[in-house]
Amino acid sequence: MKRIFVQWGYGAMTALLIATIGLAVPAITTPVEAAGPRPFFQLPVACGETWRLSTYVGHDDYDIDMFPTEGTASGRPILASYAGTVVSSSYDSGGGYYVKLSHGDGWQTLYLHMLESPMVSVGDVVAIGDQLGKVGSTGSSSAPHLHYEQLRDGAKVESWFNGEPSGITHDDANYSVYRTSHNCGTPHGPLWNRVRSSAGSWGVSSELDGNRALTGTAAASLPNGTMHVLVIVPNSGIYHRVRSATGTWGSSVRIDTSGYFTDVAAVGMPDGTLHMFGVIPDSGLWHRVRNTAGTWSSSTKIDTSPIISDVAAASLPDGTLQLFTLVPGWGVWHRVRSAAGAWNTPIRIDDNGSISDVAAAGMPDGTTQLFTLVPRWGVWHRVRSAAGAWNTPTGIDPNGNITAVSAGSLSDGTLHLNTTVYGSGVWHRIRSATGAWNTPTGIDFNARIFATYTIGLPDKSLHVGVLVNTA
Q1: Staple partner for 314: which of 20, 32, 322, 366, CB 3.0–4.6 Å?
Q2: What's the first-to-final CA gap in the chain, in angstroms?
Q3: How far apart are CA 30 and CA 113, in angstroms?
């Protein structure tokens, strides 16, 4: 049965932009092997650019037409969305000039309607981000755009980018989503940490993990004053590092050997336990607990949805754990784990299908603060009262270039929000205990930051971690 993805929004965002380009896809057959794990595909366009991904009635399931949100489309570089080998580079009356790549283990990608002859030939080996050609309108096309597909064992499937489903799954309606490119070269990493003292002064950033291959990070604090940092190393697993209450860092220890995690979240609970949540594409959400003695439990799958892209968690003084999962095209889902360890049923609390990132923080007054990022529209804020009632989302930062968001709280009742702005770095904003927001302040101007964590410690210091793309 087909899933119908409807794009919702706040106010003017309810208007859908519709693609109206028609094409005939070239009949290209290439022998493939049984599909292995999904490659970590990226958008086939320049790093940091936001593009509209569209489809329309009769376009065929999973076909994507891509249009830049700024500037003209014609002549834009078309990049390899993952490393591979060129198996087709030619012209077709339907697809125009096109390229097809094989990524091994049965995975392939297809790029159509290039402006002119492709820049690669059959047999060429390309790296992720290598240019294949230029956006055009050759073949059966009425306007410049890039038609893109991902294939598994020769059959088209939903495209994923940066570990997240695209949301383009059917041709039962005209609809669009917006995605920002992280095709910035590979590998990612390393991780840097910066401390804001209880007095509000910022220290100097220090390299916490020099591994250049890191793709994700999370952090949590415990009542005993320790800080816990998790990082994702592709094809290796998740690593854990502890900072003692006196400020001494321990060694990094691998706690999960699965190499397929694309997102991770961590939260410390009032009872001294540490909870980790990891997203594995096509599998679901996995949960693991570290007890007060420092021993980790086995991983347990707590959500079987194969299209979760992002996860966030927050703890409250009453011992409940607030869990948020993002499903592209569907919105944000909320689940509560009681102090006794029982999970309730997930409830969708935001049906905006364009949300690309989510962050959460639990407050001393028992409220939960939720932040969602909508590409081109900025950051939205929502509060869950101590009694469990949600207010209406409010736009608090209209910057359309924000690419990531993280949040943390301090025991003095302040809430700290950090936003990553493409090409500008990380901006810090504080919400006082009375609910008033100050003006954002730039705290790190490295233009290559792509992910952050924000965590408050019992001593009222704030730690901000940033992953910096070194490619």
Answers
A1: 322
A2: 41
A3: 20
